[in-house]
Write a structure and sequence with these properties.
It comes from Alcanivorax xiamenensis. The chain has 348 residues and is of the alpha+beta class. The chain is 16% helix and 30% strand. Bound molecules: FE2/S2 (inorganic) cluster (FES) and cobalt (II) ion. The site of cobalt (II) ion has 5 residues, from loops.
Length: 348
């Protein structure tokens, strides 16, 4: 599936940028191949519009914010949050008239600007920990990966990769068969609960305050269609580490990885920098493998293009639900034309 060519995927919310990155002025972001300008108005509310002035196409993201509006750096045409041109400095006596740029839905939530390019089908997912006492938030990663959203999503729910991809961090190489899952399908997503045995390497021992070499992760996993997941991990000592990861589609080959965590312990118990360092190791292990996969993952699991095994169940359900979504909106799955995409060059 090529995300940028499935119009229905424009109707979901994606986190696109940490809000604080807009404190010093407008910034560009490419979402599903749409070049956007993002800015904060005088109330601190975010706006998103086409990053291309209606006059001579200059990038508005090179301009500046004046009050609630964005000013083009080239001749100063000024646009409001709805994309309407409200001022043309060279013709102050005439109404700015019909000039406008396309504007998109933008919201501030969980420290990020979220954007929906179309008419939203669902809300931004609710994260109860964001408002519950006893949790702190740790912003972990905001970085581009050369992988498609679906690849990262199915990886996030695939407990069979722990023993291999994560054998140097928490995976148990001698326990390659994960528990069967009972996946509960929901509107625009699914959830399941499972328990996985894991290794407890030295840094984790310290962060979890658990002495044993192995432990168990009690996991509640949620998929937010199309490219969001929440993994709530509870350790036997009651500690909760809930991670939210979005693979925001930049284009068909690149995702902006937005990851933050809610923790039930305190900064004195476990410094955020050390928690990030451990999750960084784990994430790098995933990244290396995911960037080696073809970006165009087929939704049709019966096509024979890829082989499957029982532990692929979350990814299979994901593909089935995405197929049903496309069908519901009268879309065909867009694919890279021709056969297999060439292997990506290996980094030296
Ligand atoms: Fe934007 Fe001229 S190009 S004002
Ligand atoms: Co992984």
């Amino acid at each position: 599936m090529l995300a940028t060519q499935q119009p229905v995927l424009r109707r979901f919310w994606y986190p696109v940028m940490p809000l604080e990155q807009l404190d010093d002025g407008p910034k560009p972001f490419r979402l599903m191949n749409e070049e956007l300008v993002l800015w904060l108005d005088s109330e601190g509310d975010p706006h998103a519009a086409e990053d291309r002035c209606a006059h001579r196409t200059a990038r508005l993201s090179l301009g500046w914010v004046e009050g609630d509006n964005i000013v083009c750096p080239y001749h100063g045409w000024t646009y409001d949050g709805g994309g309407g041109c409200v001022r043309i400095p060279q013709t102050p006596d005439r109404p700015a008239g019909r000039a406008k740029v396309r504007a998109f839905h933008a919201e501030a939530r969980y420290g990020y600007v979220w954007v929906c390019l179309g008419d939203p089908l669902t809300d931004i997912p609710h994260m109860p920990e964001a408002n519950e006492p006893g949790y702190r938030v740790i912003h972990q990663f905001y970085e581009v990966w050369r992988t498609a959203g679906l690849r990262l999503m199915e990886n996030s729910f695939d407990n069979a990769h722990f023993s291999f991809v994560h054998r140097e961090s928490f995976g148990q190489f001698d326990k390659p068969i994960p528990a069967r899952l009972n996946i509960v399908e929901e509107d625009f997503g699914f959830r399941f609960e499972t328990v996985a045995p894991v290794n407890n390497p030295p840094l984790q021992k310290k962060l979890l305050k658990m002495d044993s070499d192995t432990t168990e992760r009690h996991m509640t996993s949620k998929w937010f269609m199309p490219f969001g997941r929440k993994l709530n991990i509870r350790y036997p000592n009651g500690l909760v580490h809930a991670i939210i990861t979005y693979a925001t589609p930049i284009d068909d080959e690149h995702s902006m990885i937005c990851q933050w965590a809610y923790r039930s312990d305190s900064e004195e118990d476990a410094p955020a920098q050390q928690i990030i360092a451990f999750d960084r190791q784990v994430t790098e292990e995933d990244k290396r493998v995911l960037e080696s996969t073809d970006h165009d993952a087929p939704l049709d699991t019966a096509s024979g293009e890829e082989r499957h095994m029982p532990s692929d169940q979350p990814g299979m359900v994901m593909r089935k639900m995405l197929m049903a979504l496309l069908a519901r909106f009268g879309e065909e799955e867009a694919r890279v034309s021709g056969a297999r995409i060439p292997m990506k060059e290996k980094a030296s």
